[in-house]
Design goal:
five-stranded mixed β-sheet, alpha/beta, 11 helices, 308 residues
Length: 308
């Protein structure tokens, strides 16, 4: 009797990146964004992958302690240009620590936001939305892994969908808070707790630049993060004013969109519910290798306590 062949347990970093960029094509990224492989030599072997929202020093140490040769993060290590990666700065320390450990860093940022089973869809699914469509669509990439699996869907920033039945703003906000990883920041809401909502717009990450798109979508409520005082005040005031205008002509006068402001890292962390499964499956399908994929449970939200 022949001996059964043992499954491969590692792939090259370059091959892992190739698979990742079929799952989350770089063509989906915003023009200003630069996701992809940030640190690492393509020839390095990878048998363990570690996932986290932010590449902080604590996360780097966690990944290396877990024996990872590839760290996958949602947020970039470099949001702005730098001129050195010396040990005098935290970014240099992170790069040097990763290189010393032969651990690559790959970032899926706005490309992962827009992808099938990416950041936006993961959040919309977690909140119970059906009949989803992108808030801002982008062209589907024919190299997308989901095109090969028959799971092609429209892609783009954010999602708009519907709850199974109208729900009070209070109950929906509590649902959102319940599925998010806990942080000290909590969830803020603008609107009457008893207002009824059914059509929901979701944009994980900083979303106050998308108010016009949300208004055009007809959403009853908008779930996003990092809402600043002035844009949020202006948007909500405009929604209230438009509701009064509708009421004066005998039309429905519901204020919309109402607003739910979530912790940035918490809502984006929902992505890994899908990513950990999809990355494992896609690498196995492409290479036959069954890699270990772990997800950090550490909150990388910067706020450590609230006062008052």
């Amino acid at each position: 009797m022949g001996q059964a062949m043992q499954a491969e347990t590692s792939v090259s970093l370059g091959k892992a990146v190739e698979v990742l960029e079929q799952l989350y094509p770089l063509s989906y990224a915003e023009d200003w964004d630069h996701p992809g492989l940030i640190v690492g030599e393509p020839s390095w072997p990878v048998s363990t992958i570690y996932c986290a929202v932010d590449p902080t020093l604590e996360i780097i140490d966690e990944a290396i302690a877990a024996g990872a040769q590839l760290l996958i993060c949602h947020h970039p290590l470099f949001f702005r240009s730098i001129n050195n990666v010396s040990g005098f700065g935290v970014h240099g320390a992170i790069v040097n620590r990763l290189v010393e450990a032969h651990c690559g860093l790959w970032v899926g940022h706005t490309n992962a936001d827009a992808a099938v089973r990416g950041v936006a869809q993961a959040a919309a699914d977690a909140f119970g939305l059906s009949d989803q469509r992108p808030l801002q669509a982008v062209a589907f990439d024919s190299h997308d892994w989901h095109a090969q699996t028959g799971n092609e869907q429209s892609v783009g920033s954010g999602r708009v969908g519907r709850l199974a039945e109208p729900t009070s703003l209070r109950d929906f906000a509590n649902r959102v808070a319940a599925v998010l990883p806990k942080t000290e920041l909590g969830v803020q809401v603008a609107g009457s707790p008893d207002a009824m909502v059914q059509t929901v717009a979701v944009l994980p990450g900083s979303g106050d630049s998308m108010f016009d798109d949300v208004s055009a979508s007809g959403a009853d409520v908008y779930v996003t993060s990092d809402l600043r005082h002035h844009p949020a005040t202006d948007a909500y005031q405009q929604a209230q004013y438009e509701a009064r205008l509708r009421g004066s002509t005998g039309q429905a006068s519901q204020v919309k969109p109402l607003l739910i402001n979530t912790p940035h890292s918490a809502i984006e962390g929902l992505w890994f519910r899908y990513a950990s499964q999809d990355i494992h499956a896609a690498i196995e399908q492409a290479t036959g290798a069954r890699l270990k994929v772990q997800v950090s449970t550490r909150s990388t939200d910067p706020w450590t306590f609230t006062a008052g």
